[in-house]
Amino acid sequence: MLTKRIIPCLDIKDGRTVKGVNFENIRDAGDPVELGALYAQQGADELVFLDITATNEKRKTLRELVVRIARHINIPFTVGGGISSVDDVNVLLQNGADKISVNTSAFKRPALITELSKEFGSQCIVLAIDTRREANGEWVVYLNGGRVRTETKCAEWARRAVDLGAGEILLTSMDHDGTKKGFAIDITRELAESLPVPIIASGGGGKMAHFVELFEEGKADAALAASIFHYKEITIPELKGYLHSHRIPVRI
Amino acid sequence: MELVIVKYNAGNIQSVLYALERIGLQGCVTDDAELIRKADKVIFPGVGEASTAMGYLKERGLDRLIRDLRQPVLGICLGMQLMCRYSEENDTDCLGIFDAEVKKFTPSEAGCKVPQIGWNTIYALKTGLFDGVPENSYCYFVHGYYAAAGDDTIATTDYVQPYSSALHKGNFYGVQFHPEKSAQTGERILRNFITGIE
Q: How much is the ipTM here?
């Protein structure tokens, strides 16, 4: 049976993990490769590396990092952050990334999704959407790391992106992100039930029960989280054990 | 041990090379007919689209070359599908090594998404390729087309329906999942192919 995926996310700046991490059993928690390898060893199903570097050297450091990750880590990984062209993606995939994620650049120029899926196949194109619920109850798309609001409804953009060739949707609820009060179940479920591609939900996971709710009620295919793993509030083995005991199919 | 990875217009080749490095093996990526013919073991990887890939192989005579190989050959993902008789993906005649047809997953009422992306189990394991690999081990899959179960099936996986997650005929082996991305299970299978299969 195909299992639900647990995906730790690592934020990267200048080749280093950004969010403070607290692991005594690795030498250098600032090294994304070492932290990623530890997660892989603990049973993470995939990894996401989100590059927030804004310097001119970005491309070079990211390429070098992708090579190191691909050399050392034996599970699939996605790379995202500022990707805006076929050339960008080609470099990352050629160097060993399994998938890439696009967000603002795809919204501003949706043809990018078509170009990427034609060139590399839908299976490696993840569309990331940041969304927030308006006072009227509508979920709308935000860009530029959540700083820019659009008028576009989340479900409409997701549907269009899938039609253009996106192979997965990484959905982050800005309302839930960082709250540790649970995932955005309604919008996750809406997308999961209406779209033919897997939905990775992100934002709000604080307790293990939230993950059960996400998979059971939200119908998500995968859950992404960062700080709860980085700060060891929940470890991957205990989360997977808990999900298994609640009859959620997971790889153990 | 000369270990060759067939170079063609498909992705994911670098990942296979790195996976071999992790288990202490050096591979060479090439489309040179002589090097491929002389190799002890050949890996035929790939992520991509069937008709484009077959077109490329034919243009360079790699289709006949692969079909005529006598040493152990391991096809991975698209590589395995290309070793089958026919693929529904853009109506493509393939290499015809395995007696199997490649069909598109039809999403079922069970809510299966297409492509299948993620970790699924392999069972009914046969041949030395799976030595030391327990039944129902997890492997990583990414595919929208599948090889139907048949006489050459040496591993089965359930998605929409049971299908071939590995095939074998003579010196040819093929796996639908990605051993290069399937953690320790995948490394064991790669090692079995390199060191265990004669």
A: 0.92
| Domains of chain B by residue range | 3-196
- What values do phi and psi take at B102, rounded to 5? -105, 125
Whether pLDDT at B179 is above 80: yes
Task: Decide which of A29 and B121 is more confident.
Answer: B121
CA distance B39 to chain A (A): 24
Which of B15, B118, B180 has its CB closest to that of A2?
B118
Q: Does A222 touch chain B (CB under 8 A)?
A: yes
Flag whether residue A82 sits within 8 Å of chain B, measured between CB atoms. Answer: no
Cβ-defined contact of A221 to B22 (cutoff 8 Å): no
Locate the chain B residue with the closest alpha carbon to A198: B113
State how far residue A223 is from chain B, nearest Cα, in angstroms.
12
Q: Please name the residues in contact with A246: beta carbons below 8 A apart, sequence gap of 6 or more.
A: A212, A216
pLDDT at A24: 56
Round to whole Å and give the CA distance between A86 and A198. 23
Q: Quick one: pLDDT at residue B198?
A: 84
pLDDT higher at B10 or A59:
A59
Query: Number of residue pairs across A and B with CB atoms under 8 Å?
Result: 84
- % of chain B surpassing 90 pLDDT: 85
Distances, alpha carbon A230 to alpha carbons A22, A84, A181, in Å: 7, 29, 17
Highest mean pLDDT among A24-33, B2-11, B116-125: B116-125
Does A130 participate in catalysis according to the annotation? yes
- What is the set of active-site residues of B? 77, 178, 180
Q: What percent of chain B has pLDDT over 70?
A: 98
CA A75 remoteness from chain centre: 15
Phi and psi at B100, nearest 5°, equal: -145, 150
Nearest to B119 among A3, A72, A123 (CB): A3
Specify whether the CB–CB gap between B198 and B180 falls below 8 A: no
Delineate the domains of chain A, giving CATH numbers in brackets.
5-245 (3.20.20.70)
Any chain B CB within 8 A of the CB of A94?
yes
**For the domain with range B3-196, which CATH number is right: 3.90.650.10, 2.40.30.60, 3.40.50.880, 3.30.465.10?**
3.40.50.880
Which residues on chain A are in Cβ contact (under 8 Å) with B165? none
- Separation between Cα atoms, residue A9 and residue A49, nearest integer Å: 6
User: Which parts of chain A have pLDDT scores under 70?
Assistant: 19-27, 29
Burial class (CB in 10 A: 0-12, 13-18, 19+), B65: middle
Q: What is the pTM of this model?
A: 0.94
